[in-house]
Protein: Cytochrome c oxidase subunit 1
Amino acid sequence: MTARLRAPGLPRAGFFLVLGTLFCAAIIIAAREAYGFPVFADGGITTKAQNAILLLSLLIAPLWFLIGLGAFDYWFYWAAGKKERAEDHSGHGATSWTDYFRVNTDHKVIGIQYVVTSFFFMMIGGLLAMLVRAELAAPGSQFVDANAFNGLFSVHASLMIFLFIIPVFAGLANYVLPLMIGAPDMAFPRLNALSFWMLPIAGIMMTASFVAPGGSFSTGWTAYAPLSTSAPLGQMFFTIGVQFAGVSSIATALNFLVTIITMRAPGMSFWRMPLLVWANFSTSLLVVIATPFVAASQFFVLFDYALGFNFFRPEKDGDVLMYQHVFWFYSHPAVYIMMLPGFGIISEILSVKSRKPIFGYRMMAFSLLAIVLLGFTVWAHHMFVSGMQDWIRIPMMVTTAIIAVPTGIKIFSWLATLWKGVLHLDTPMLWALGFLTMFTLGGISGVILAMVPMDIYVSDTYFIVAHIHYVLYGGSLFTIYAGVYYWFPKMTGRMFDERLGKAHFWLTFVSFNATFGPMHLVGVKGMPRRVADYAEEFAAWNLFISLSSFVLGLSTLIFLYNMVSSWRGGPRASANPWRAFTLEWQVSSPPPIFNFDRIPTVVGGPYEYGVPGHVHGIMEPAEEARPKQAAGASSAEEGV
Structure:
């Protein structure tokens, strides 16, 4: 009988975490005392020793946590020269809620772990945003001082970007992408599990950066040098947390690329893949190419901060602008990392809910790849007022305007898909239509900001805050809600409450526009962002914005209640409640443990609504799949 391979669990992992932290401290103390660098002074630990202990602990202790969790058991077993253990997959999949709190190699379990964890950190980030708006409800100081205010908006932005928007898209794709292409799992299941468990490590570090001893992380999510090289200890929490979040993203992206390229079902060519798969393929290329740059920028800061290097110290001939170039070479593509998966989600929903094929399917796919290429040519438009050379402004303005073209192609294709369609205005469709409206408005303000004179005029005002929230909240978060509602029946086997879903949408839609719309006005009038106090002339608008933001925050509670109550006791969902054609809807809800009881063979396109007798995938018995594959594929190619 083969061994049951379950992870040791969280208690052992916590023990290893504490042990690793103590081990790091012991190494630092022993090394510094041995080489004449005092650790203790006047009965306390010196500041340099504190920095060194914290740095080593933040780097090594999480690895001890992962060891205690069992993440590297197979590697240690192999390194010891022992015979390879047989695996019976008894630890694969979830039979109860407790299985979501251990290492699991099932992509469906990992997808739900990603989504739930990301929403947990979204709630923390949203709470920090409510505190920001409470402080800004009136001029003067209300609840926090200026330094605490800086920490609030810095940690809010960091959590929302690195711990919510990017990973929640990875979670949704983790669940549905292998199903969509007819694969039994991801290409590297253990790497998939490891990439998830680095996420809560990063989240805990970033959250702890607000309450770190010595001062919170307060340099904004951009962490510009040289300010970040002399910030309080909270800066180090953020810097290391970004590294773990980045490694998690890269591991997931590599897994997606290999899965999409090598594990598609028989007959599924690239031009038969659903657009969500194309979107995640494009996003994964961006992540693999761009994320090392933000890792490099934070390593440079870390070397300046903790080890006394001088990459960015101007008094030591460091280059301050180099940080911005390296950081934005990642962080503008990161905007598309946070948008492209949402484009795929919207394409799926609009086609199903309008009962029409996606208009211009191939152009939609090509536009995704075009955004990947153009995304690396526009980074310096964030630096128009940074003091960089004047000659680079014009080409960056031109490329920024050009990148609106592939995005415009997508909006045109979505509208053409809706034209004369049989529209089903249920909850997922409402969120998809809300995205189209909000993202178009955000895109228009983005084109305005691409123009150098306008950008200089409104730089560092609330016009920028309004633009980024229309893009990332009205764009990314609306697509996230649309995707969660759309695939909720598949993920849980339950239907959600449609009335609560619609109430959530309308309350969010109205309060969102009431919150961020007026920010354009106060920004054009000159109200600076990232300040805890402001002129009296902006008081009325800020009170209105703050009250609207509280309504926006409360609307999220409707969503949480709907999800939890429906998952526990909602009506049972059928295999295909939306009557969709893609493969994930051709199996039970939730799917079998390895997705398909029979090997699927793809014989048509994913969006051929209105074609009489159209079938996208058929389930062949395993022993009959190979002989029928060639004939099925050739006939389907003729149909396409």
Q: What stands out?
A: Residues 153 and 437 are 27 Å apart (CA to CA). The domain at 103-569 is CATH 1.20.210.10 (Cytochrome C Oxidase; Chain A). The two ends are 49 Å apart (CA to CA). The longest strand covers residues 599-602.
